[in-house]
Amino acid sequence: MPPAQNVVLVPSRYEEWAELARSMITTLEEQIPDAVFEHIGSTSVPQLPAKPVVDLMIGVEPGRILEVANLLATVGFDLEGKYAHHSWLSSPSRTNRVFIVHVLEKSGTAWNRRIVFRDLLRTDDQARNKYLATKVSAAEATDNWDDYTQSKTSVVMGLLEEIGQ
């Protein structure tokens, strides 16, 4: 198990993060040409402070999630979690993340909710501000990424419920 990593939020570097996402997606398309790719998470939202780690999603057919996760692990990604419905990997490693790559069923519920949430934050100042306040509070109150993520869950779910998701 890697050592605890405090979450540090930095001011938005949206253009830089978007370019990193485009570059990594180009690389991933070579490995998985039949997949769908999306830049998600706070780095995909202009003007939103974030952990300086770019989150990407790879959408594949449901039966291919583990296959794709295993393939990426063989080409240098650090496989952090592996389930039939969702796998995630870090690059270059879980202790030095520049990217987190989620492998999910394309157009499945989890895929769609992540895109809807990203798009909500991109277009709704009130939702973005509420989420930012939660992120700041969570970063101050936790000492690892898992607790940070868990402490934001109720707000994320609430914001999605407000828009019927």
Please state the average pLDDT score. Answer: 94
Helix-strand topology string: HEEHEEEHHH
β-strand amount = 15-25%
How many E-type strands? 5
Say what oligomer this is. Answer: single chain
What is the total number of structural domains? 1
Layout of secondary structure:
Layout: H1 14-31, E1 36-40, E2 54-60, H2 65-74, E3 78-82, E4 86-93, E5 96-105, H3 109-123, H4 125-141, H5 145-162
Helix pairs in contact: 3-4, 4-5
Notes on the structure:
By secondary structure, the protein is of the alpha+beta class. The chain has a single domain (14-162), classed as Beta Polymerase, domain 2. It is 47% helix and 21% strand. It contains five helices and five strands. Strand 3 and strand 4 form a beta hairpin.
